[in-house]
Each structure stands twice: as structure tokens, then as C-alpha cells.
Write a structure and sequence with these properties.
The complex is a heterodimer of chains A (251) and B (226).
Chain A (H helix, E strand, L loop, with lengths): L1 H8 L16 H21 L1 H20 L4 H34 L1 H7 L4 H31 L7 H26 L5 H26 L7 H30 L2
Helix pairs in contact in A: 2-6, 3-4, 3-6, 4-6, 4-7, 4-8, 6-7, 7-8, 7-9, 8-9
Chain B lengths: L1 H26 L13 H28 L2 H33 L7 H22 L4 H25 L15 H44 L6
Classes of the chains: A mainly alpha (251), B mainly alpha (226).
């Protein structure tokens, strides 16, 4: 059984389970895709995280509509911020729940014992969280457009790119810290405590990029500048995660 | 050498404090724009120098701890992070006092203040993780320090391009010779204080850790009752 599974995943160094190094880079992506697909399939069957965090995001939008001023222009101008705050909060809840699920089923040990290199397991979880965060955004943006008359769809392409880069950055940094938190006490409150200060540049860039896309006069140069900033942020933290990963999340 | 180093640093720092105190109030001239309230500058800005130094020390020693797994780097990182919280808090408080006196607002969303605030918050997170995280928390805290250190330029660029508060004033460059002299003396004094506190704290943390290790060994050997 194990050998047939190994050949399906395509690892060429099946004896290398402990060191996490493969001779060919392609299998890492395939391992990561397998882990991500596993996460998404579990999620699609129960739909637990999608329903609960999706509903949480809706409630956030409702609360935001009460807590800002009655002046409609002010509310519309605040909708980029509302979008990214909703991503921050709902994303953190989804992240915590996704890693809790691993701990409850004790599947973390099974994943780490598999022939997949640890980096691939980590990437797989990151991709899974990215999809969940994008699902949250897919719920929040239409809600903001419908309930608060927000013109977020004025420039759809930059918006989608900004959300994709922002979700990936959030998932990357979040997965690193959530994985480290698996063995730590006071896990629930410490995740936002350690995550949000590091993520501030991501949220600044995301909010500014989204705000620059809005009518009456969208400033697309500024929007693309902030999207590039998001790209740089993702690249920097991808690099630093790859470099310190082995020492951070080793069991 | 180790035993006398900290008292020497502390004595030098005390001399420095007294000398700069005299210098700031007696020798340096009154600032043209801000008058007397500018004098807090000599005690406010060195806090930020020490904060950034402490953050870099914590970040680099956390990186060394992660790569080499030697606990002594973790001691240095913990001590540096605690001092970063201390000096950052002093910087924020003195900054608020100065902002109230100079701009009539306790807090201003000016880029450098916000950058310093965010870095301070990362260090507060580090201290909270170490305090309440239990036994598995060293690696998490080390990761936080490394990520935080890498994040500093990103925070600075992100905040700088953002909106500037309309009243924000850039800190004036010092033009008078004596102002420059006493400013840099004050910076030196703060670094001496930082060094003395850091070395003392590292010794204390190391002693605590070694005591814990010996306690564990005693429990394992059945010589101690838990």
C-alpha cells in the first residue's frame, strides 16, 4: 500500500521521509497539491469552516454598517477597510479552526510520517488556507456591494489580484505561526497577538490598493504600486519561511 | 572581567546621565521654534535608537538560536526583547508628552511614530508568548522575533507611503554644536544603560534556565519531590 501511494504522489526519494529533501523540485508541488486537495475535500464534505466563517464575515459586515457614521459618503469610503478587516478576523478564525482540526484528528503526525517532505505539507496547508480566505472575500465583497452600495467592482482585475496576493500572504504567515502554536498554551488568543503586527504592512497595502480603485477617479498607478508592494511582501515572507522553516516547525 | 563589566558600564552611564543633565539644561541653547519643550528631544530620541538596536539584537540572536539550537542565544533574545519593550514604552510615553507640548495632541499618526509603535507591538507579543506560552513557546517567540525584524523595512515603507497627519513635523536637524554634542552623549549614555541592563538580564535568565534544568534532573533521578 505505501509504495503504491508513493508512486501516485510521484516522490522519487521515498526513503528520504525524515530529511525532507527531494532531488527533484516538482514532487514538492505535487505533494503540496495533494495535501491542499485533501484539506479542501474534507472541507467540501462537511463545509464546516466555509459556513461558520462565511457567516461570521456576514455578521462583521452587519456590525460595520452600524458602527460607522450615517454619512453615506464616509461609509462607502470605509468599505475597503471593512473588506480587509473582515478578511483579517474571519481569516484568523478559519486558520485556527483548520489547524485545530489537524490536532483533533491527530492527523499531523500522520502527515509528518508520510513520504511527503515537511515543506510540502506546509505549502499544502498554506494553499488550503488561501482558498478559504478567498472564499471569505467572495462572500464579503458582494455583501458590501449590495448592502452598503460600495463600488468595489469598479476595477475587477486589480481587485482580484490584490485579494489573491493578500490572501496568499495572510495564509503564508498565518500557517507558519499556527503551526508553531500547535504545541503552545493559550493558543487561541496568542494567534492574533503574534499574527496581526506582522501582517500590518499587508493590510495597509491591501486597503490602500482597494481604495485607489474606487470611483470617481481611480488612481490605477497607485493601486498597482500597492499590489506590487503586496507581491514584495509575499516574496520576502516566502523566502524567510523557506529559510527558517526546518528549524521552526521541526517536531 | 564579567563581574566588573556591568558595574563599570553602570557607573559610566550614571556619570553620563549627570553630565548630560547638566549640559542639556545649562549649556545647550534654547530651540528657536519649540523653546523649552525641545529639550525632551535629548531623552526621547535615544529611546528609539535603543529600541531598534534591541530589536535587531533579538532578531539576530533568535535566528542563531533557530539555526544552532544553543539556549544561550535564546537567553540573549529574551533579554533584548524585554528591554525593547521597556525602551519602546519610554519612547512612546516621552513622545506623547512632547507631542502634547509641541503639537497639542497626545498622539499623531506620523509615519515614524507608527513604525515604532508597530515594532514595539511585535516585541510586546514576543514577551506575552514567552510569559504565557508554556514550554513550547521558545521557537514560536524566536520565529516572531525573526519575522518581526524582517518586517521592519516593509512596515516603514508601507506606513511612509500612507497618509501623513497634516500637523506632523519632521524633527529638526540639530544645527548648534553643543546641541549635537549633548545629543550624541545622551545616545551613548542610553546605550551604556542598555548594555548594563542587557548583560544583567542575560545572566539572570541563564541562571533561571540552568536551575530549571538541574531541577528536572533532580526530579528524574528521584532525589526531589515535585
Amino acid at each position: 500500500m505505501p509504495s503504491s501511494r508513493t508512486s501516485i504522489i510521484g516522490s522519487r526519494t521515498s526513503a528520504d521521509a525524515g530529511t525532507g529533501r527531494t532531488t527533484v523540485p516538482v514532487p514538492i508541488l505535487r505533494h503540496a497539491a495533494a495535501v491542499a486537495w485533501k484539506d479542501l475535500r474534507v472541507e467540501l464534505r462537511s463545509r464546516e469552516i466555509v459556513y461558520t466563517t462565511g457567516f461570521f464575515a456576514c455578521l462583521l459586515v452587519v456590525i460595520f454598517s452600524f458602527t460607522f457614521s450615517r454619512n453615506e459618503a464616509v461609509v462607502v469610503a470605509s468599505t475597503p477597510g471593512m473588506l480587509w478587516v473582515a478578511i483579517a478576523f474571519a481569516g484568523t478564525v478559519a486558520l485556527a479552526r483548520a489547524f485545530d482540526r489537524e490536532r483533533e484528528g491527530d492527523t499531523m503526525r500522520a502527515l509528518l510520517l508520510s513520504p511527503a517532505p515537511r515543506l510540502a505539507v506546509f505549502f499544502g496547508k498554506t494553499l488550503g488556507i488561501t482558498v478559504l480566505v478567498l472564499a471569505v472575500a467572495a462572500v464579503v465583497v458582494p455583501l458590501l456591494v449590495l448592502l452598503l452600495q460600495s463600488p468595489l467592482f469598479y476595477q475587477p482585475l486589480p481587485l482580484v489580484i490584490a485579494l489573491a496576493l493578500g490572501a496568499f500572504g495572510f495564509a503564508l504567515v498565518g500557517s507558519v505561526f499556527a503551526a508553531m502554536l500547535l504545541r503552545v498554551r493559550s493558543r487561541d488568543v496568542l494567534l492574533p497577538v503574534v499574527l496581526y503586527p506582522i501582517l500590518v504592512p499587508l493590510f495597509i497595502a491591501g486597503t490602500k490598493a482597494t481604495a485607489e480603485m474606487l470611483p470617481p477617479v481611480p488612481n490605477l498607478d497607485a493601486a498597482w504600486y500597492w499590489i506590487q508592494f503586496l507581491g514584495v511582501y509575499d516574496a520576502v515572507f516566502l523566502g524567510i519561511s523557506l529559510w527558517t522553516f526546518e528549524s521552526l516547525v521541526i517536531e | 572581567m564579567k563581574r566588573t563589566l556591568v558595574p563599570i558600564l553602570a557607573a559610566l552611564a550614571a556619570v553620563g546621565l549627570v553630565y548630560t543633565l547638566w549640559g542639556v539644561f545649562v549649556v545647550t541653547p534654547m530651540d528657536i521654534e519649540l523653546f523649552f519643550s525641545q529639550k525632551i528631544f535629548y531623552y526621547h530620541v535615544p529611546n528609539w535608537f535603543v529600541l531598534f538596536t534591541a530589536v535587531v539584537v533579538a532578531g539576530i540572536s533568535s535566528l542563531l538560536y533557530l539555526k544552532k539550537r544553543a539556549p544561550r542565544y535564546d537567553d540573549v533574545a529574551t533579554a533584548a526583547a524585554e528591554l525593547a519593550v521597556l525602551f519602546g514604552a519610554m519612547g512612546l510615553i516621552t513622545g506623547s508628552i512632547w507631542a502634547r507640548a509641541a503639537w497639542n495632541a497626545w498622539w499623531v499618526w506620523e509615519p515614524r511614530l507608527v513604525t515604532s509603535l508597530l515594532i514595539w507591538l511585535i516585541m510586546v507579543g514576543y514577551v506575552l508568548v514567552r510569559r504565557f506560552g508554556g514550554t513550547g513557546a521558545e521557537r514560536l517567540a524566536a520565529g516572531l522575533a525573526v519575522f518581526g525584524m524582517v518586517d521592519i523595512p516593509l512596515i516603514y515603507v508601507g506606513v511612509n507611503q500612507g497618509d501623513r497627519h497634516p500637523q506632523a513635523k519632521v524633527v529638526k536637524q540639530l544645527d548648534e554644536g553643543t546641541m549635537k554634542l549633548f545629543f550624541w552623549l545622551s545616545v551613548l549614555t542610553y546605550f551604556l544603560i542598555f548594555a548594563a541592563l542587557l548583560l544583567t538580564r542575560i545572566q539572570a535568565i541563564r541562571a533561571e534556565r540552568e536551575l530549571r534544568v538541574i531541577h528536572e534532573r533532580g526530579l528524574d533521578a528521584g532525589l526531589l519531590e515535585s
